[in-house]
Amino acid sequence: MRGLLVIGHGSRRGEANATVRELARRLATGSAHPTAPCADVSPGPDGSPDPAPSSTGSQSANDPRPWGAVESAFLEVTRPNIAEGYANLAAAGCTEIIVYPFFLFDGNHTHRDIPAALDEARERHPTTRWILSEPLGLHACVIEAVRARLDDTLRGLVHAAGTST
User: What is this structure's pTM?
Assistant: First the structure.
């Protein structure tokens, strides 16, 4: 069975940690924002949209829940930590664990710290293997999301300029 481990950095701010947990919940249930325009866009090698859907083994890329179990975990500050999240997936019967680092950029955490923690967790669960996904980076939908946030900001400025205080 395949599991999904969504890893966030971990924060003293509960709202930040709640976002990681909510992402894991939505990935587990297959729910997304109903107007998400990027829901079916896969990036090409240069980050631009690729019209051909990618395959995920025997499960369809269009399957909203190709995971038998989903867990959230954190690199530092809060729990569950990576070892605990990995152990929960192994206990649920997952032998293949896809790991999604919910980070914007590829850096030391995604290249060094997370793989080291995953290797340590796998030592305790030798019948499992893990596969690390790329972080968000400049995926076409990230660029679209940034444009949407900027549009919201500009609309807010126009609205604020039109009001008197």
Answer: 0.77
DSSP label of 54 = P
Which CATH fold would you assign to the domain 1-28+55-134? Rossmann fold (3.40.50)
DSSP summary character for residue 162: T
Between these two residues, 98 and 57, which has the higher pLDDT value? 98
Contacts of 143 (CB under 8 A, 6+ apart): 47
Q: At what angle do helices 82-91 and 114-124 cross, to 10 degrees?
A: 40
Strand ranges (E), 37-141 = 42-43, 49-50, 69-74, 96-101, 129-132
**Dist CA 119 CA 123 (whole Å):** 6
